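testing teh design pipeline on a random one, pls ignore if ur not involved
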């Protein structure tokens, strides 16, 4: 389903933006750190929301009528996407429980961030990078066939031109 794929890639973007705070801190650039610090929590919440919406929509076929759409057919199955959502929720929980965890919360938060990136990468690897034909209506096979056809027509035109030149030179 196209909407599920769009939301999935938004979730990947939100995960990358959330993880970018650590890189911004290590870079020493105060302006970059301040920018990512301001959006970090918001982007984290959006990541969880996008993950849930993706999980609810995933598994439905393109062109499904509203009555045919099954809610969350894959969300409650154990797969890397579900694991990613669980880790994202644990990340939020580590922030909420930071006063109880004290100094250990940042360690837990960073470990969970690495786990989130790993589970998202495994999910994308497992499912594959899917881009819907409705977004890009021309497939790779069609591009290759058109390129080969153009190459063949150019080659035959070049051969025809060479024969014409050689016949003209002979006359």
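output:
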């Amino acid at each position: 389903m196209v909407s599920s794929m769009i939301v999935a890639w938004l979730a990947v973007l939100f995960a990358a933006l959330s993880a970018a705070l650590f890189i911004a801190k290590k870079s020493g650039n105060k302006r970059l750190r301040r920018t990512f610090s301001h959006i970090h929590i918001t982007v984290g919440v959006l990541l969880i929301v996008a993950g849930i919406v993706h999980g609810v929509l995933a598994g439905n076929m393109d062109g499904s009528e509203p009555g045919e759409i099954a809610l969350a057919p894959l969300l409650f199955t154990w797969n890397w996407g579900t694991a990613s959502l669980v880790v994202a929720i644990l990340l939020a929980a580590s922030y909420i429980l930071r006063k109880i965890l004290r100094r250990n919360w940042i360690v837990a938060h960073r470990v969970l961030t690495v786990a989130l990136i790993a589970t998202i990468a495994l999910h994308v690897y497992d499912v594959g990078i899917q881009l819907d034909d409705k977004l890009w209506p021309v497939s790779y096979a069609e591009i290759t066939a058109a390129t080969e056809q153009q190459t063949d027509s150019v080659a035959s035109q070049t051969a025809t031109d060479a024969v014409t030149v050689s016949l003209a030179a002979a006359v």
